[in-house]
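Deviations from the work plan: none for this task. Representative record:
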Amino acid sequence: MLLIHCPHCREDREEEEYSYSGEAHIVRPLEPEALSDQEWGDYLFFRKNPKGIHHEMWYHAVGCRRYFYATRNTLSYEILETYKVGEQPQVSAQGAAQ
Amino acid sequence: MSQINRLNTGARTDSTSRINFTYNGKQMQGVAGDTLASALLANGVNVVGRSFKYSRPRGIVGHGAEEPNAIMQIGSGAATVPNLRATQVELYEGLESASVNGWPNVNFDLMSITGWFGRMMPPGFYYKTFMYPAKLWMTYEHFIRKAAGLGSAPVQDDPDSYDKLNQHCDVLVVGAGPAGLVAAREAARAGARVIIADEQSEFGGSLLASINSIDGQAATSWVDELVAELESFSNVQTLPRSTAFGYYDHNFLGILQRRTDHLGISADSGSRQRLHRVRAKRVILATGAFERPLVFAQNDIPGVMQASSVSTYINRYGVAPGNRMILFTTNDNAYQTAIDWHRAGRAVVAVVDSRSAPSGEIVGSGTGNGYSSNSRLRSD
Amino acid sequence: MKKYSGFSLFKNALSYHENWQKLWRSPKPKDYYDVIVVGGGGHGLATAYYLAKVHGITKVAVIEKGYLGGGNTARNTTIIRSNYLWDEAAQLYELSLKLWEGLSQELNYNVMFSQRGVLNLGHNLQDMRDIERRVNANRLNGIDGEVVTPERVKEIAPLINISKDCRYPILGASWQPRGGTARHDAVAWGYARGADALGVDLIQETEVIGIRRKNGSVVGVETTQGFIGTRKVACVTAGNSGVVAAMAGLRLPVESRPLQALVSEPVKPCLDTVVMSNAVHGYISQSDKGDLVIGAGVDGYNGYGQRGSFHVIEHTLQAICELFPAFSRVRMNRQWGGVVDTCPDACPIISKTSVDGLYFNCGWGTGGFKATPGSGYVFADTVANDHPHPLAAAFNVDRFNTGALIDEHGAAGVAH
Ligand SMILES: Cc1cc2nc3c(=O)[nH]c(=O)nc-3n(C[C@H](O)[C@H](O)[C@H](O)COP(=O)(O)OP(=O)(O)OC[C@H]3O[C@@H](n4cnc5c(N)ncnc54)[C@H](O)[C@@H]3O)c2cc1C
Ligand SMILES: [Zn+2]
C-alpha cells in the first residue's frame, strides 16, 4: 500500500486515490501516419519495465484529477520523488542527479 | 468432571467465579479470566486432538498463538468458527467447543490404524502413488480430501456484521508487553498520537504471568498502573484483542480487532470484528518471543509442555497442568518453572539440563524449592 | 530413473525410506550446451523435458537463480481450464489440457491433476452474453463447456449465494467439467525428475546475468558461476523477462506486476469445484489439504517485490464473502505475491527474437500455470527447429507490430 505525494495537492495520499499510467516520458509521435508498423508498435506496446529505478506516470483520480510523474524503485517500492508534467526527474537509474 | 488442577494462585483469574462451558459435549466449569485452554487443563483434559496423518494423540503445548495442537471448533450453527486455538479463546458462559480431529472421538480414534501403515506414508508419498489406473485418481482423491481439513466451515450465512476504520498515527506500537507499554507511554508523554495493539485480552504480555516485581511493585500491578496512565491520554488509542496481521509498504498495517467473540453473543452488539487500516509515521514492533521447543523423540505426546507455558498456567491462570514434572532445559530461565511448580504444591521429579555445569543464580536456588542439585540429571 | 509405484513405496518402507533415489542430480555446469533454458519454473522445466523427450536434444541445461519451481509456479492458485475465446488461444490451452490428462502417467509422478470443473460466473447481462459467446466458440473448437443457470451453479457449489438481493447477483455461469486444479510443486518436480533422467542438467542457485552475442547471434550466457557457451538460449523467466531481455538489448511488450493470493486454514471439504468471477474479481477452490485457495487481481503498478497492496486482497475477500457468505468466519492463514508478466492482449509470447538463437516464452501473466505442459511442448519444438510450432506461430512477438493481437482479457479470468 503505497503512500504517494501528489505534487499538485502537495499532500501524501493513499495509493487507492491514484491510478497508474505506466512508463513516463513517452512522447506521442507528432505524425503517427508517418511511422512504420515497427515504430508505431514500439511506441504503443514495448516498455523498459526495469527492476529498480522507474520513472512512471500517475493520475490523482479521486483528488485533483491531474497527472504527474514519480521516480520509484520497483523492487523496494520506495518513491524517491514526484514531479509535475513538464519537469525532469532529479533521480535517475544511473544514480547521478541530473 | 471437576477442576482437579485448579489453584488459587492465578493473578488474572477469579477462582471463586464459575463459568459453564462444554467440551466435546461434556459439561465443564472454568473461572473468569480463563482461556479455553486453561479451563481444559484445570479439568484435567490431556488429549485435545489427533495428529493429521498418523492420528497420534496430542495435548496442549503452549499458552498463546504458538499452540499447535489445541485446535477447536467453537460454537455451533451459523455462528460456528473453525480452527481456533484454545489458548486464544476467552472462556464465556455457555461456550461450546469441540476438538477437530479424531473419529469417532479424540480418545478412541479409529483413524489411528493408519499409524500401522505409517511407514508406507513418508512425506510426499502421494506424489509417488495413486497414479495407476489413471481413472481411479479422482476416487483416491475423494478419500484423501475427506481425511484432510481441521474444523468445518459454517454452512449457513454469517449472522454477524463487520466494519473497518482508517486510522493515522505518529507511532503504532504492536505488542503491549513491558517493552511496548513503556514505548507507548514515552511516545504519548512526548505528545505523539499513539495506537497500541495487542492480540491478547489484556495488556501486559509476559508480565501477566510474572511473579517478579518492577520498581518494588508486583509486575501485574505495575502493568495496571501503566495501562491506566495510557488510557488517560487523549492522544492514545488502546486496542486489546487486536492482532496486527500484515505490515505493508510505507508503514501501512492491518489490525483485526475482535470486538464480541469473547462475549459469545452474535449480531446485536454491533460489529463482531473491526479492521483497522493504519497508516503510521513510525512503527514499533514489540511482539516478544516464543519459547523455542526442544527436539527429542516423542516430544509430541500429551503431557509435554513448554516451560514458559507451565509457569503461565500456574501464575496467570491458577492451573497446574499435572502432578509430577520432569523439567528439561538448556538454559537457566526454565528453572523458574521448577520453582513455580513446587510453589503450586506439585512434585518436581527431576531437572534435566543439557549443559554440563549450569551455575546461574536461579539454578542454585533449587535447594529449598523442591528439587536439589542431585535430582538434576545431566545429559552431557 | 527408478519407477514409482505402490510396490516401490512398500519396498522403500522396509528400508525406512533411506534408499530412495534422489529426484535429480546437482551437476556442475558444463562448458557448452546445445540449449540453455533460463528459468527453472514449470514452463522452463517442461521445455527442457520435451526438448530431450520429443526432440532428442539432451545436452540441455536449465539455469535457475533460486530453486526449481520457486517463482510463480510455487505461488499460483493452480486453476486449469481451456475455455479461452479465440481459436489460437483455445487450441494452445486445449493442447495443454490434453497433456494434463495423461501427465501423472507420462512423468510417473502424481501431479494430482483434479478435474473437479471450473465455473466462470456471470453477474450482469453483458457477462452472460460474453459467456454464451465464449462457450459457443469453445464448442466449435471441440472444447467442453456449457452455459448453466444459477440453480445449477448452486448444485455444483452448494454454499454459493444465488439470491437476487445482493450487489452482484449470479445470473449464470460457464461450466467446464474437464477443468480443475493440480498440485503446483509436483508439476515442477515431476518435469524436473523426468528431464534429469533424460540427461538434462538442472543448475540451481545460479543467475543468468548476461547474454553474450557475436554478430547478432547468441554464443553463450554469463552466469554467477561463470560463462557457459551455447547457440540457443530459451528464456522462460516470467516476471523477470524484461530484465533478461534487456541483457540482449531488447524490450518486450510486457509489464511486471504483483499478483496476490491467499489460503485459509484447512477446513473439511466444503467446495468441490473451482469458482471464478471476473466481475467481482475473485476466484476460489479448495485444495486436497482443505485450504480455501483464493486469488486476487493484479496490483495497479509495476513491481518486482513479490508482494502487493492490501486493498487488492481486501477487495477480493469482500467479493468472496459476497459469493460465499459462510466463509467470512473462516480465517486466512497466509498471503503472498508473485511477479507476473502481463501482456497487453492477455496472451503469451512464444517467439524467436531479432537476436539469432534467442527465444522467449513469457507474457503468461496471471494465467500460465494451466499452460505449463503445452507451453513447454510448443516452445521446445520452436527452439529445436528454430521455427515456430504451428500452435505457437500466432504468439510471435511480432504481433505487437503487425497488430494481430489476440485479445483474451475476457477469458483470462483476471483483469490486467
Ligand atoms: C498469485 C498467483 C496466482 C496465479 N494463479 C494462476 C492460476 O490459477 N492458473 C494459472 O493458470 N496460472 C496462474 N498464475 C500464473 C502462473 O503462476 C504463471 O503463469 C506460471 O506459473 C509461469 O510459469 P513459469 O515457469 O513461466 O514462471 P516461474 O515459475 O516464475 O519461473 C520463472 C523462473 O525463472 C527464474 N529466473 C528469472 N530470472 C532469472 C535469471 N536471470 N537467471 C536464472 N533464473 C531466472 C525465476 O527464479 C523463476 O524460478 C498465477 C500467478 C500468481 C502469481
Ligand atoms: Zn493531487
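Chain C has a mean pLDDT of 96.
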